[in-house]
Amino acid sequence: MAEFKLPTETVDLPSKGLLYDKDNPLSSGKVEIKYMTAKEEDILSNSSYIKNGTVLDKLFKSLIVSKINYDDLLIGDKNAIMVAARVLGYGNDYNFEYNGEKYNIDLSKVEFVKANESLWNAENSFDFTLPASKTNIKLKLLKHADESKINRELESLRRINKNSSATSTTRLKYTITAVEGETETKKIREFIDKYLLARDARAIRSFIKEIQPDVDLTFFPDGSDEKANIPIGLS
Questions:
Q1: C-alpha span between 62 and 55 (Å, rounded)
Q2: Which member of 1, 91, 92, 201 has the lowest number of beta carbons within 10 Å of its beta carbon?
Q3: Closest CA to 219 of 56, 90, 97, 115
Q4: pTM for this predicted structure
Q5: How would you write 82-121 as a 3-class SS string?
Q6: 41 in Cβ contact with 16 (< 8 Å)
Q7: What is the pLDDT of residue 4?
Q8: DSSP class of residue 30?
Q9: DSSP letters for 113-179
Q10: Which region among 5-9, 65-69, 157-161, 183-187 has the lowest average model confidence (pLDDT)?
């Protein structure tokens, strides 16, 4: 039987590879992925993957041809792979409903967000002084491995207390890597739980938004001057 070779495409990453160590294959700023096949459609319909929330990651891992460590992917770069996978699998047109209205987006025209690239570095480490408390911290942009840990921690908290709403502080516990030079995890968590002011937490989120490489998955709803998030789901 003749040997078949699946076509592939190269995906440009929003980070341009500048936030990865030079020895990391992701520092090329590109990832090669293959076109979706019936095998990947099986992944998308796998009820176990859907139930435990891993279905999209299983899909992307199956599609990526480049020899990378999936856990190293920055969240914004993973979003770029998601958009590319959707385009290669089902085409550019993405139809969805928002507030009862139907919309169509050409995914091939989706752009990267405008981030402050002048602050990017291969260590993925950023110095930041909290404006209210004047505390000096270091922080990082989250990777897939961090998101997986955050989700597991939040799930554990919900098992203890189903009304738990610690999403913001939990994410900060993985984002902040040092407080006044102190890098011990226990002390960083204590600072976040007891001493981090709401004004400073908001400033951290604003700073991350400024430097975060990502895909611009927003649009202007009819009659609105403000952008809204494009709803993304398994459908």
A1: 11
A2: 1
A3: 97
A4: 0.90
A5: HHHHHHHHHCCEEEEEECCEEEEEEHHHCCECCCCHHHCC
A6: no
A7: 67
A8: E
A9: ----GGG--TT--EEEE-TTT--EEEE---BHHHHHHHHHHHHHHHHH-TT---HHHHHHHHHEEEE
A10: 157-161
